[in-house]
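Q: What would this chain look like folded?
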Amino acid sequence: MIKSRWARVLIVEDSPVAGRILSEGISRDQRLAVAGIAVTARSAVEMAERLRPDVITLDLVLPDESGLRVVQRVLHTRHVPIIIVSTLGVDGSESMPFLALAAGAADVIVKPAGNETALRSFFPDLNERIATLAAEHAVPTHTPVEHVRARGVDMPMRGAAIECVVIGASTGGPPALVELLTGLGPDFPAPIIIVQHIAAPFIEGLVRWLDKETPLTVSLAENGTKPVRGRAYLAPSGADLVFESDGRLRVLPVASDRRAIAPSADALFSSAAEIYGARCAGVLLTGMGRDGADGLLKLRTKGAKTFAQDERSCTVFGMPAAAGRLGAVEAFGEPRTIAGRLRKLAARLERMS
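A: My prediction, written as structure tokens:
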């Protein structure tokens, strides 16, 4: 039986009002306890070392130093999951949240405006992220990767041309995407279609950041887009992204009361399986939950090449582990390793056993 309040949280927030609201909202969850509240970058680093929390929530705007420096300084001495809670970047023009993710922060979430409706939906989401990250980084909570691998890599994978790559990612996904897209290079001979779970206000900033940080041209997918080689397309928030029979992309808005996750990696993968079959490759990166697992299995049953990020390099192994348990993954690897396999497959050069 799991004890109550088994995950200790350090809140880093310079506003006393916001700090109190965060503390009260987090403490309502019986799994979580607030270990302390830091109001400056200096006190955050000191309290992280002294209190040794399981998870840190961090505002990026602090009176003495930026939250980015807190991420860098804390993770230099101790590996602890950090969730960015901020309004920076919500207009798509600020790269600080993504720099924090690249520096090792685990996740980013929008700080609520403070009205009752916003707070009601905010804390269940935040608290679930805190509990999941604490569990992932404390004790094994999933099938060990060796057991997953036993069902995932025993089939040979033959080299054949691929006409598109579909990717699903969630918690920890942005830096993993940078690694993968950088590894593919600017001349990758197939389009890349991506579902990344991220708070809606951050999606445009993420597109700009990936476009800047990787050699590929990255853009937000639009209804009717015909994907072209050497480009990457991100699914918009609140909508599924699927392939039409002619290979064009279709954006399907999803009502927020119908499904919690939109865009869905399962929806993208399933449509790719129907349209491209064996001429496609699917990749499932780090993330909470199991979105993409069923869709990756559909891709594999159609003869597509399927990869998933390995446990060691994942922020959260949930989505890749779920796919591995289904037998949907042909090979696990770090994002750069997966990119190398995809380049060889796309060039008809690889024969793997």
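Residues 145-346 form a domain with the Rossmann fold fold (CATH 3.40.50.180).
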